[in-house]
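Re-running LTD domain-containing protein to confirm reproducibility after the cluster update. Everything else is unchanged from the original entry.
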Amino acid sequence: MRVAASRPPPAHGTDPAPSVNGCLWEGARTMQGDSLFVSVSVTARRLAATALAAGALVSAVTLPASAADHDRAKVEISRVQYDSPGRDDRSNRSLNGEWVELTNTTRERINLKGWTLSDESGHTYTVGRFHLNGRATVRIHTGEGRDTRTDLFQDRRAYVWNNDRDTATLRNDRGRFVDDHSWGRHGGRH
Ligand SMILES: [Ca+2]
Ligand SMILES: [Ca+2]
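Result of re-run:
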């Protein structure tokens, strides 16, 4: 079933400065020695600023791909119950019988804050403050409820995962693809 309006996509914060700044600074200081430290440090600052700008430009092209691959190996959509058990009467109980499970395939805790789960129509749920423990699974319900370590709630009043066909897509906090899961008439995918 569809809901009337979709939430706007989440705004993504500015990424923290890459470590190139610190590397350049240390390199310049070591190479030039203490006597030239003050003047060199100014040059180093300029160099760092230039490198930072260049680095930011490069990272926009190259880093997200590797970051996505990284996260893709870490968290997966492990199960989807897109048809809530019983009659779809749109009660909160029924809405919460519709869910998607995410599993952390690593041993390390992963911060899922800002990660999104979307359907084919663009209805998007953004994870709030939440860490998924290593090897743990979290179930994201469609309806309303109080978030716990094992269950999160989209707080919707309508179904989001179509019974006939749909795709759940997981993206990280940079908006990069992590995993998806399709069902219905999709030519045999999943
Ligand atoms: Ca049903
Ligand atoms: Ca849908």
